[in-house]
């Protein structure tokens, strides 16, 4: 009877397996993007379109593919999802630099390949061109720069290298900001300041016109208020003292 029970149990297991087939395993299935089976970086420049092609390897069935730009899913047409899928980035621009595109297996998203765009471009600069500042006030000239690879900056004043005085000048630089601050500006600080940015792909310049204006005299507000109060009181006392004459006239 034990053998009969064991046989019946095995039969029930096989029946369940037939009714509820296990999903096919993704073990051994691989993806490639532009012939790369591992994550990689793709260097390019702004302008021309880039095509990314994702292909399924080592699968015995039709596989659906998904594309992501960063964390957002890319919409694909029906004929561009199974076993092979292509996306086109056109035109490539500076904002695509550092963006990750990922192809994933729909039924097992752990099977994936990512490509990071390395968009290289020469410097382009921006910043307020004309600044008016009162004498003895502080001022900051900010040169905003975008480039890839990162650029180096130099400041000039009236076409000569800017002479830095540690007690009055301060430089600040990040990957996208080049800044020079001047404390207690003087009339001699007026002039044209040039931000020059140099990178392996080219150079860029931007002029900043600093105009130092005369120091405005401090208006003696308290003294004026005091004077107005004194005059008002004097007039009031004068009116009170002469009220009898004023009433006789009326």
UniProtKB/TrEMBL annotation:
The chain crosses the membrane at residues 223-241. GO terms for molecular function: cell adhesion molecule binding. GO terms for biological process: cell-cell adhesion. The keyword Transmembrane helix applies. The keyword Transmembrane helix applies. One of its GO terms (cellular component) is cell-cell junction. It comes from the Eukaryota. It is found in: Membrane. Residues 24-114, 122-213 form the Ig-like domain. Coiled coil: none annotated. This is TMIG1 protein. It is a single-pass type I membrane protein. InterPro entries: Cell_adhesion_signaling, Ig-like_dom, Ig-like_dom_sf, Ig-like_fold, Ig_sub, Ig_sub2, Immunoglobulin_dom. Keywords: Disulfide bond, Glycoprotein, Immunoglobulin domain, Membrane, Transmembrane, Transmembrane helix. Gene3D superfamilies: Immunoglobulins.
């Amino acid at each position: 009877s034990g053998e009969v029970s064991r046989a019946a149990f095995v039969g029930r297991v096989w029946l369940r397996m037939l009714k509820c087939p296990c999903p096919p395993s993704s073990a051994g299935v691989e993806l490639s993007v532009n012939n790369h089976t591992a994550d990689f970086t793709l260097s390019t420049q702004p302008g021309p379109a880039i095509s990314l092609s994702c292909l399924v390897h080592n699968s015995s069935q039709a596989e659906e593919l998904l594309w992501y730009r960063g964390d957002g899913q890319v919409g694909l047409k029906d004929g561009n999802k199974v076993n092979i899928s292509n996306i086109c980035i056109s035109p490539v621009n500076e904002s695509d630099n550092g963006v990750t595109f990922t192809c994933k297996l729909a039924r097992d998203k752990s099977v994936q390949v990512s490509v990071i765009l390395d968009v290289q471009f020469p410097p382009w600069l921006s910043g307020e061109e004309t600044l008016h500042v009162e004498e003895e006030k502080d001022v900051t000239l900010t040169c905003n720069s975008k480039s890839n690879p990162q650029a180096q900056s130099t400041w000039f004043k009236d076409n000569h290298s800017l002479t830095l005085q540690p007690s009055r000048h301060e430089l600040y630089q990040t990957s996208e900001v080049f800044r020079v601050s001047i404390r207690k500006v003087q009339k001699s600080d007026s002039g044209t300041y040039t931000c020059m940015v140099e990178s392996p792909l080219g150079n860029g310049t931007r002029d900043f016109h600093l105009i130092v204006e005369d120091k405005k005299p401090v208006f003696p507000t308290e003294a004026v208020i005091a004077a107005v109060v004194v005059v008002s009181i004097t007039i009031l006392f004068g009116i009170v003292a002469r009220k009898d004459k004023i009433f006789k006239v009326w």
